[in-house]
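Handout, section 3.2

Students often ask what a structure token actually looks like in practice. Rather than define it abstractly, here is a full record for Class I SAM-dependent methyltransferase. The first block is the sequence as you would receive it.
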Amino acid sequence: MGPPSPATARAGTYAGPVTQQRPVGVITRGTTNPNRLRRCDRWLAGPQAWRLRRSPGPPVVVDLGYGASPVTAVELHDRLRAVRPDVEVVGIEIDPDRVAAARPLERPGLGFAVGGFEVPLPGDRRPVVVRAFNVLRQYDASEVAGAWATTTARLAPDGLLVDGTCDELGRLASWVAVTPEGPVSLTLSWRLRGLDRPGVVAERLPKALIHRNVPGEPVHRLLTSLDEAWARQAPQAAYGIRQRFLSAARSMRDAGWPLLDGPSRWRLGELTLAWDAVAPHQGP
């Protein structure tokens, strides 16, 4: 019996042998919580929404390595439907038991399948977005480039891999946007209320950068500059923490950091920079 047809897939049924290839990757710890990935979802439904709108047919979005609970895939589908009502979200997990547990939640536009970085989809369909959060964090840094290459090779035109990390409640997050040509941007996102200093996001950097947060590396210079800008803008706290963050972001832009967004995103506690500004130096 062959793989299900695209029509069947759109009905939310992704069961069946869509590939003979052994899943690429290893089972992750699977920790997740409701709303944990809301910051990235907001970015996908905001600055990246054009990728969904441009798709000539129903755009496919993959939640790769969603973990022990399928809640993040369900939430992703709900949020992206505001952009494209016909969006199809597929939760892909390497653990068959996790997929079996998620299957009762399938519905039109939402399905689940067994797989890994090779991103198996019915009918060899290609995703517009693959979101892989808290997945590569559990791998060795030497494996990141290979995982990126494997996954981006499966993308649709104008497609994007989002490789990110966040804390357990989603209050601190960062992610790299990766195309088949390589990484293009780094986004940092904070819950502003109660924020002591922006440099705390260092503990949630993506795997490609977390071990590079040392003197002499661009990402270390970025976080140091952010903390310095935050400290200089302390008087703005009298007008609220959001105003202080906006002022710090403006001072970063004025200092020459290539910020790709503006005040509408900064107000959300979000900064996106060109990857070239933080790309790691080549090691020995």
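Discussion prompt for tutorial groups: Residues 1-20 have pLDDT under 50 and may be disordered. How would you have guessed this from the sequence alone?
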